[in-house]
Amino acid sequence: MSSKDWVEKDYYAVLGVEKSASSDEIKKSYRKLARESHPDHNPGDPKAEERFKTVSEAYAVLGDEKKRREYDEMRSLFGSGAFRRSARGGGQPGGMPFDVSDLFGGGATGGADTRFGGGGFTDLFSSIFSGGAGAGGPARPRGPARGRDVETEVALDFDDAVRGVTLPLSLRAPGVCDTCHGNGAKPGTQPVACPVCHGAGVTTRNQGSFSFSEPCRNCQGVGTVVEEKCPECHGTGGVTKTRTLNVRFPAGVADGQRIRLAGRGEPGERGGPAGDLFVQVKVRPDELFGRSGDDLTLTVPITFPEAVLGTDLRVPTLDGTVTLRVPPGTPSGRVLRARGKGVVRKDGRAGDLLVTLDVVVPAKLSDEARAALESFADQTPPAAREHLDARVRRFS
Protein backbone atom coordinates (compact mmCIF):
# COMPACT_ATOMS: atom_id res chain seq x y z
CA MET A 1 0.00 0.00 0.00
CA SER A 2 1.09 3.62 -0.48
CA SER A 3 2.71 5.36 2.47
CA LYS A 4 0.26 8.24 1.93
CA ASP A 5 -2.58 5.82 2.67
CA TRP A 6 -1.61 6.04 6.33
CA VAL A 7 -2.57 9.70 6.28
CA GLU A 8 -5.42 9.77 3.83
CA LYS A 9 -7.36 6.59 4.69
CA ASP A 10 -9.42 6.04 7.82
CA TYR A 11 -8.98 2.35 8.45
CA TYR A 12 -11.22 2.47 11.52
CA ALA A 13 -14.09 3.67 9.34
CA VAL A 14 -13.32 0.97 6.79
CA LEU A 15 -13.75 -1.72 9.45
CA GLY A 16 -16.67 0.10 11.07
CA VAL A 17 -15.11 0.30 14.55
CA GLU A 18 -14.22 3.09 16.95
CA LYS A 19 -10.64 4.21 17.40
CA SER A 20 -10.78 2.83 20.94
CA ALA A 21 -11.88 -0.63 19.74
CA SER A 22 -10.05 -3.61 21.21
CA SER A 23 -8.05 -6.08 19.14
CA ASP A 24 -10.83 -8.66 19.45
CA GLU A 25 -13.43 -6.17 18.24
CA ILE A 26 -11.28 -5.27 15.24
CA LYS A 27 -10.72 -8.93 14.39
CA LYS A 28 -14.42 -9.74 14.73
CA SER A 29 -15.45 -6.87 12.46
CA TYR A 30 -12.80 -7.77 9.89
CA ARG A 31 -13.90 -11.41 9.70
CA LYS A 32 -17.53 -10.38 9.22
CA LEU A 33 -16.76 -7.89 6.47
CA ALA A 34 -14.25 -10.18 4.75
CA ARG A 35 -16.76 -13.00 4.72
CA GLU A 36 -19.46 -10.78 3.23
CA SER A 37 -17.24 -9.34 0.50
CA HIS A 38 -15.10 -12.39 -0.29
CA PRO A 39 -14.83 -12.99 -4.09
CA ASP A 40 -15.89 -16.62 -3.62
CA HIS A 41 -19.24 -15.41 -2.25
CA ASN A 42 -19.57 -12.68 -4.89
CA PRO A 43 -18.36 -14.16 -8.20
CA GLY A 44 -18.08 -11.60 -10.98
CA ASP A 45 -18.68 -8.63 -8.65
CA PRO A 46 -15.75 -6.18 -9.01
CA LYS A 47 -17.12 -3.89 -6.30
CA ALA A 48 -17.17 -6.71 -3.76
CA GLU A 49 -13.63 -7.68 -4.74
CA GLU A 50 -12.42 -4.09 -4.26
CA ARG A 51 -14.23 -3.94 -0.92
CA PHE A 52 -12.50 -7.16 0.16
CA LYS A 53 -9.08 -5.71 -0.73
CA THR A 54 -9.80 -2.51 1.19
CA VAL A 55 -10.95 -4.41 4.28
CA SER A 56 -7.87 -6.65 4.15
CA GLU A 57 -5.59 -3.61 3.80
CA ALA A 58 -7.18 -1.98 6.85
CA TYR A 59 -6.83 -5.11 8.96
CA ALA A 60 -3.19 -5.54 7.91
CA VAL A 61 -2.52 -2.28 9.76
CA LEU A 62 -4.99 -2.29 12.65
CA GLY A 63 -4.56 -6.00 13.32
CA ASP A 64 -0.87 -5.48 14.12
CA GLU A 65 -0.26 -3.68 17.42
CA LYS A 66 2.97 -2.01 16.28
CA LYS A 67 1.57 -0.86 12.93
CA ARG A 68 -1.63 0.33 14.59
CA ARG A 69 0.35 2.44 17.10
CA GLU A 70 2.42 4.02 14.32
CA TYR A 71 -0.73 4.61 12.25
CA ASP A 72 -2.45 6.35 15.17
CA GLU A 73 0.58 8.57 15.78
CA MET A 74 0.79 9.48 12.11
CA ARG A 75 -2.92 10.30 11.87
CA SER A 76 -2.76 12.33 15.07
CA LEU A 77 0.18 14.40 13.85
CA PHE A 78 -1.25 15.14 10.44
CA GLY A 79 -4.75 15.61 11.81
CA SER A 80 -3.49 18.38 14.07
CA GLY A 81 -2.57 20.45 11.01
CA ALA A 82 1.15 20.33 11.67
CA PHE A 83 1.87 19.50 8.03
CA ARG A 84 -1.09 21.00 6.24
CA ARG A 85 -0.67 23.57 3.51
CA SER A 86 -2.14 26.95 4.43
CA ALA A 87 -4.98 28.52 2.47
CA ARG A 88 -2.46 30.72 0.64
CA GLY A 89 -0.35 27.72 -0.36
CA GLY A 90 2.35 28.18 2.25
CA GLY A 91 3.43 26.17 5.25
CA GLN A 92 4.29 27.93 8.46
CA PRO A 93 4.71 31.71 8.25
CA GLY A 94 7.62 32.50 5.97
CA GLY A 95 8.03 28.87 5.04
CA MET A 96 7.91 27.06 1.74
CA PRO A 97 4.80 25.21 0.53
CA PHE A 98 4.70 21.67 1.87
CA ASP A 99 3.43 18.71 -0.09
CA VAL A 100 2.80 15.35 1.55
CA SER A 101 4.09 13.66 -1.59
CA ASP A 102 7.50 15.28 -0.94
CA LEU A 103 7.58 13.59 2.43
CA PHE A 104 6.74 10.18 1.02
CA GLY A 105 9.10 10.30 -1.93
CA GLY A 106 6.56 11.28 -4.56
CA GLY A 107 3.96 8.74 -3.50
CA ALA A 108 6.10 5.67 -4.06
CA THR A 109 4.27 2.57 -3.13
CA GLY A 110 5.40 -0.42 -1.21
CA GLY A 111 4.16 -3.17 1.06
CA ALA A 112 3.19 -2.60 4.64
CA ASP A 113 6.65 -3.66 5.74
CA THR A 114 8.54 -1.33 3.39
CA ARG A 115 6.82 1.97 4.13
CA PHE A 116 9.11 4.91 4.93
CA GLY A 117 12.09 2.94 3.58
CA GLY A 118 11.55 0.13 6.09
CA GLY A 119 12.31 2.26 9.15
CA GLY A 120 8.76 2.90 10.33
CA PHE A 121 7.14 6.07 11.65
CA THR A 122 9.74 6.88 14.29
CA ASP A 123 12.74 6.54 11.96
CA LEU A 124 11.01 8.64 9.32
CA PHE A 125 10.48 11.66 11.55
CA SER A 126 13.80 11.40 13.34
CA SER A 127 15.36 11.64 9.87
CA ILE A 128 13.28 14.68 8.90
CA PHE A 129 13.89 16.71 12.03
CA SER A 130 17.61 15.98 12.24
CA GLY A 131 18.57 16.64 8.64
CA GLY A 132 18.58 13.03 7.50
CA ALA A 133 21.06 11.63 10.01
CA GLY A 134 18.68 9.90 12.39
CA ALA A 135 17.99 11.12 15.87
CA GLY A 136 20.68 13.25 17.44
CA GLY A 137 23.45 14.11 15.02
CA PRO A 138 24.57 15.76 11.79
CA ALA A 139 24.53 13.95 8.49
CA ARG A 140 27.43 11.60 7.91
CA PRO A 141 29.09 10.47 4.71
CA ARG A 142 28.57 6.92 3.62
CA GLY A 143 30.90 4.53 5.39
CA PRO A 144 32.66 1.43 4.06
CA ALA A 145 30.39 -0.72 1.89
CA ARG A 146 30.58 -4.50 1.74
CA GLY A 147 31.40 -5.97 -1.65
CA ARG A 148 28.84 -7.91 -3.60
CA ASP A 149 28.56 -11.69 -3.42
CA VAL A 150 29.66 -13.66 -6.46
CA GLU A 151 28.16 -16.95 -7.63
CA THR A 152 29.59 -19.47 -10.05
CA GLU A 153 28.89 -23.07 -11.06
CA VAL A 154 31.22 -26.09 -11.12
CA ALA A 155 30.52 -29.54 -12.60
CA LEU A 156 31.99 -32.50 -10.67
CA ASP A 157 32.35 -36.13 -11.65
CA PHE A 158 30.20 -38.47 -9.58
CA ASP A 159 33.23 -40.14 -7.99
CA ASP A 160 34.82 -36.78 -7.05
CA ALA A 161 31.58 -35.61 -5.44
CA VAL A 162 31.37 -38.77 -3.33
CA ARG A 163 35.01 -38.87 -2.28
CA GLY A 164 35.72 -35.12 -2.11
CA VAL A 165 38.18 -33.21 -4.25
CA THR A 166 40.18 -29.98 -4.43
CA LEU A 167 39.99 -28.18 -7.77
CA PRO A 168 41.45 -24.92 -9.12
CA LEU A 169 38.70 -22.45 -9.96
CA SER A 170 39.37 -19.54 -12.31
CA LEU A 171 37.16 -16.50 -11.94
CA ARG A 172 36.99 -13.33 -14.00
CA ALA A 173 35.44 -10.76 -11.71
CA PRO A 174 36.00 -7.22 -10.37
CA GLY A 175 38.98 -6.77 -8.08
CA VAL A 176 41.05 -4.01 -6.48
CA CYS A 177 43.21 -2.10 -8.93
CA ASP A 178 46.87 -2.95 -8.28
CA THR A 179 48.05 0.42 -9.61
CA CYS A 180 46.13 2.73 -7.26
CA HIS A 181 45.30 0.12 -4.59
CA GLY A 182 41.63 0.96 -4.85
CA ASN A 183 41.54 4.74 -4.27
CA GLY A 184 41.12 5.58 -7.99
CA ALA A 185 43.83 8.26 -7.99
CA LYS A 186 46.89 8.45 -10.20
CA PRO A 187 50.00 7.09 -8.42
CA GLY A 188 51.62 9.90 -6.44
CA THR A 189 48.30 11.68 -5.89
CA GLN A 190 45.41 11.25 -3.47
CA PRO A 191 41.65 11.88 -3.60
CA VAL A 192 40.68 15.31 -2.24
CA ALA A 193 37.69 16.52 -0.25
CA CYS A 194 34.62 17.13 -2.40
CA PRO A 195 34.25 20.91 -2.99
CA VAL A 196 30.44 20.66 -2.94
CA CYS A 197 29.82 18.80 0.33
CA HIS A 198 33.25 19.59 1.83
CA GLY A 199 33.86 15.95 2.65
CA ALA A 200 30.53 15.33 4.38
CA GLY A 201 29.21 13.08 1.61
CA VAL A 202 25.74 14.66 1.88
CA THR A 203 24.17 17.95 0.93
CA THR A 204 21.39 19.65 2.89
CA ARG A 205 18.59 21.87 1.61
CA ASN A 206 16.16 23.85 3.73
CA GLN A 207 12.45 23.79 3.08
CA GLY A 208 10.63 26.03 5.50
CA SER A 209 11.06 24.71 9.00
CA PHE A 210 12.63 21.50 7.76
CA SER A 211 15.97 20.49 6.33
CA PHE A 212 16.42 17.53 4.02
CA SER A 213 19.69 15.76 3.38
CA GLU A 214 20.65 13.54 0.45
CA PRO A 215 23.89 11.99 -0.84
CA CYS A 216 26.10 14.48 -2.58
CA ARG A 217 25.67 14.12 -6.33
CA ASN A 218 29.14 15.44 -7.08
CA CYS A 219 30.96 12.69 -5.16
CA GLN A 220 28.11 10.13 -4.98
CA GLY A 221 28.17 10.32 -1.19
CA VAL A 222 31.82 9.30 -0.78
CA GLY A 223 33.04 12.71 0.43
CA THR A 224 36.09 12.75 -1.84
CA VAL A 225 36.73 13.23 -5.55
CA VAL A 226 39.61 12.10 -7.75
CA GLU A 227 41.19 14.97 -9.68
CA GLU A 228 43.86 12.90 -11.46
CA LYS A 229 42.44 9.50 -12.29
CA CYS A 230 44.40 6.28 -12.25
CA PRO A 231 45.37 5.32 -15.84
CA GLU A 232 44.59 1.66 -15.15
CA CYS A 233 41.09 1.79 -13.61
CA HIS A 234 40.16 5.33 -14.78
CA GLY A 235 39.25 6.43 -11.28
CA THR A 236 36.96 3.55 -10.34
CA GLY A 237 39.44 1.86 -7.99
CA GLY A 238 38.66 -1.56 -9.44
CA VAL A 239 39.43 -3.59 -12.52
CA THR A 240 38.17 -6.86 -13.93
CA LYS A 241 40.81 -9.49 -13.40
CA THR A 242 41.23 -13.24 -13.59
CA ARG A 243 42.09 -15.00 -10.36
CA THR A 244 42.51 -18.67 -9.50
CA LEU A 245 41.31 -20.20 -6.25
CA ASN A 246 41.79 -23.72 -4.94
CA VAL A 247 38.35 -24.84 -3.79
CA ARG A 248 37.89 -27.85 -1.53
CA PHE A 249 34.69 -29.81 -2.16
CA PRO A 250 33.99 -32.03 0.86
CA ALA A 251 33.23 -35.73 0.57
CA GLY A 252 29.55 -36.32 -0.07
CA VAL A 253 28.80 -32.96 -1.68
CA ALA A 254 25.41 -33.25 -3.39
CA ASP A 255 24.06 -32.02 -6.70
CA GLY A 256 22.66 -28.50 -6.29
CA GLN A 257 24.58 -27.81 -3.06
CA ARG A 258 26.19 -24.37 -2.61
CA ILE A 259 29.68 -24.03 -1.18
CA ARG A 260 30.31 -20.68 0.54
CA LEU A 261 33.79 -19.15 0.53
CA ALA A 262 33.72 -16.19 2.91
CA GLY A 263 35.47 -13.03 1.73
CA ARG A 264 36.23 -14.36 -1.77
CA GLY A 265 33.62 -12.27 -3.59
CA GLU A 266 33.93 -8.74 -4.95
CA PRO A 267 36.09 -6.32 -2.93
CA GLY A 268 34.33 -3.77 -0.73
CA GLU A 269 34.17 -0.05 -1.36
CA ARG A 270 35.97 2.55 0.74
CA GLY A 271 37.77 -0.12 2.75
CA GLY A 272 34.70 -2.28 3.30
CA PRO A 273 34.92 -6.08 3.57
CA ALA A 274 34.75 -8.26 0.51
CA GLY A 275 31.61 -10.22 -0.35
CA ASP A 276 31.38 -13.99 -0.41
CA LEU A 277 31.82 -16.48 -3.23
CA PHE A 278 29.12 -19.13 -3.65
CA VAL A 279 29.93 -22.17 -5.77
CA GLN A 280 26.92 -24.07 -7.10
CA VAL A 281 27.72 -27.78 -7.52
CA LYS A 282 26.46 -29.81 -10.47
CA VAL A 283 27.23 -33.54 -10.26
CA ARG A 284 27.56 -35.50 -13.49
CA PRO A 285 25.61 -38.78 -13.42
CA ASP A 286 27.50 -42.07 -13.13
CA GLU A 287 26.97 -44.90 -15.62
CA LEU A 288 26.41 -47.44 -12.83
CA PHE A 289 25.61 -45.82 -9.51
CA GLY A 290 22.82 -43.53 -8.43
CA ARG A 291 22.55 -41.72 -5.13
CA SER A 292 19.89 -41.22 -2.46
CA GLY A 293 21.27 -39.07 0.36
CA ASP A 294 24.30 -40.93 1.71
CA ASP A 295 23.22 -44.23 0.11
CA LEU A 296 24.43 -45.39 -3.28
CA THR A 297 22.00 -47.25 -5.52
CA LEU A 298 22.70 -49.95 -8.10
CA THR A 299 20.39 -52.09 -10.27
CA VAL A 300 21.65 -55.62 -11.05
CA PRO A 301 19.93 -58.03 -13.50
CA ILE A 302 19.58 -61.69 -12.54
CA THR A 303 18.16 -64.68 -14.40
CA PHE A 304 14.94 -66.49 -13.56
CA PRO A 305 16.81 -69.60 -12.31
CA GLU A 306 19.01 -67.41 -10.07
CA ALA A 307 15.90 -65.82 -8.58
CA VAL A 308 14.23 -69.21 -8.04
CA LEU A 309 17.21 -71.20 -6.82
CA GLY A 310 19.23 -68.41 -5.18
CA THR A 311 22.82 -67.43 -5.88
CA ASP A 312 25.85 -65.53 -4.61
CA LEU A 313 26.03 -62.23 -6.46
CA ARG A 314 29.28 -60.27 -6.81
CA VAL A 315 28.68 -56.55 -7.37
CA PRO A 316 30.98 -53.51 -7.70
CA THR A 317 31.37 -50.74 -5.13
CA LEU A 318 33.22 -47.44 -5.39
CA ASP A 319 36.38 -49.00 -3.98
CA GLY A 320 36.16 -52.69 -4.85
CA THR A 321 33.57 -55.46 -4.88
CA VAL A 322 31.21 -57.12 -2.42
CA THR A 323 29.39 -60.47 -2.53
CA LEU A 324 25.69 -60.55 -1.67
CA ARG A 325 23.57 -63.63 -1.07
CA VAL A 326 20.40 -63.84 -3.18
CA PRO A 327 18.04 -66.17 -1.27
CA PRO A 328 15.91 -68.73 -3.15
CA GLY A 329 12.56 -67.41 -4.32
CA THR A 330 13.66 -63.80 -4.60
CA PRO A 331 11.13 -61.65 -6.49
CA SER A 332 12.09 -59.00 -9.01
CA GLY A 333 12.55 -55.58 -7.41
CA ARG A 334 13.88 -56.85 -4.09
CA VAL A 335 16.57 -54.62 -2.56
CA LEU A 336 19.70 -56.02 -0.95
CA ARG A 337 21.79 -53.83 1.37
CA ALA A 338 25.60 -53.71 1.62
CA ARG A 339 26.18 -51.74 4.80
CA GLY A 340 28.88 -49.07 4.89
CA LYS A 341 29.50 -49.18 1.14
CA GLY A 342 27.86 -45.86 0.37
CA VAL A 343 29.02 -42.24 0.74
CA VAL A 344 31.55 -41.71 3.53
CA ARG A 345 31.29 -38.30 5.19
CA LYS A 346 34.24 -36.43 6.66
CA ASP A 347 33.01 -37.30 10.15
CA GLY A 348 33.39 -41.00 9.32
CA ARG A 349 29.70 -41.81 8.90
CA ALA A 350 28.90 -43.91 5.84
CA GLY A 351 25.78 -44.72 3.91
CA ASP A 352 24.93 -48.09 2.37
CA LEU A 353 24.93 -49.61 -1.10
CA LEU A 354 21.35 -50.50 -2.08
CA VAL A 355 21.22 -53.19 -4.78
CA THR A 356 17.90 -53.61 -6.60
CA LEU A 357 17.46 -57.03 -8.28
CA ASP A 358 15.87 -57.07 -11.72
CA VAL A 359 14.73 -60.52 -12.90
CA VAL A 360 15.33 -60.65 -16.65
CA VAL A 361 12.76 -62.47 -18.79
CA PRO A 362 14.33 -63.76 -22.03
CA ALA A 363 12.60 -62.70 -25.23
CA LYS A 364 13.63 -65.89 -27.11
CA LEU A 365 14.20 -69.49 -25.97
CA SER A 366 15.89 -72.47 -27.57
CA ASP A 367 13.79 -75.57 -28.13
CA GLU A 368 15.50 -77.31 -25.25
CA ALA A 369 14.96 -74.37 -22.90
CA ARG A 370 11.30 -74.09 -23.91
CA ALA A 371 10.72 -77.81 -23.29
CA ALA A 372 12.39 -77.58 -19.90
CA LEU A 373 10.33 -74.53 -18.98
CA GLU A 374 7.08 -76.23 -20.04
CA SER A 375 8.00 -79.24 -17.91
CA PHE A 376 8.68 -76.87 -15.03
CA ALA A 377 5.29 -75.21 -15.55
CA ASP A 378 3.50 -78.57 -15.51
CA GLN A 379 5.01 -79.34 -12.12
CA THR A 380 4.44 -75.89 -10.63
CA PRO A 381 1.12 -75.06 -8.91
CA PRO A 382 -0.63 -72.02 -10.36
CA ALA A 383 -0.32 -68.66 -8.67
CA ALA A 384 -3.02 -67.89 -6.11
CA ARG A 385 -5.49 -65.59 -7.83
CA GLU A 386 -8.69 -66.35 -5.94
CA HIS A 387 -9.05 -62.70 -4.87
CA LEU A 388 -9.23 -61.78 -8.57
CA ASP A 389 -11.43 -64.60 -9.84
CA ALA A 390 -14.65 -63.29 -8.25
CA ARG A 391 -14.23 -59.91 -9.90
CA VAL A 392 -13.40 -61.53 -13.26
CA ARG A 393 -16.56 -63.66 -13.14
CA ARG A 394 -18.67 -60.51 -12.74
CA PHE A 395 -17.62 -59.39 -16.20
CA SER A 396 -17.81 -62.82 -17.88
UniProtKB/TrEMBL annotation:
Q: Where in the cell does this protein reside? A: Cytoplasm
Q: Could you name the Gene Ontology cellular component terms for this entry?
A: cytoplasm
GO BP field? DNA replication; protein refolding; response to heat
Q: What GO molecular function annotation could you give as one example from this UniProt entry? A: zinc ion binding
Q: Which cofactor does it need?
A: Zn(2+)
Q: What is its main location?
A: cytoplasm
Q: How is the cofactor bound?
A: Binds 2 Zn(2+) ions per monomer.
Copy the domain comment: The J domain is necessary and sufficient to stimulate DnaK ATPase activity. Zinc center 1 plays an important role in the autonomous, DnaK-independent chaperone activity of DnaJ. Zinc center 2 is essential for interaction with DnaK and for DnaJ activity.
User: Looking at the record, which segments are called Disordered?
Assistant: 32-51
State what protein this is by name.
Chaperone protein DnaJ
Q: What is the lineage of its organism?
A: Bacteria, Bacillati, Actinomycetota, Actinomycetes, Micromonosporales
What stretches of residues are CXXCXGXG motif repeats? Answer: 177-184, 194-201, 216-223, 230-237
User: Which positions fall inside the CR-type domain?
Assistant: 164-242
Q: Gene name on record?
A: dnaJ
Question: Could you say which protein family the record assigns here?
Answer: Belongs to the DnaJ family.
Instruction: Please describe what this protein does.
Output: Participates actively in the response to hyperosmotic and heat shock by preventing the aggregation of stress-denatured proteins and by disaggregating proteins, also in an autonomous, DnaK-independent fashion. Unfolded proteins bind initially to DnaJ; upon interaction with the DnaJ-bound protein, DnaK hydrolyzes its bound ATP, resulting in the formation of a stable complex. GrpE releases ADP from DnaK; ATP binding to DnaK triggers the release of the substrate protein, thus completing the reaction cycle.
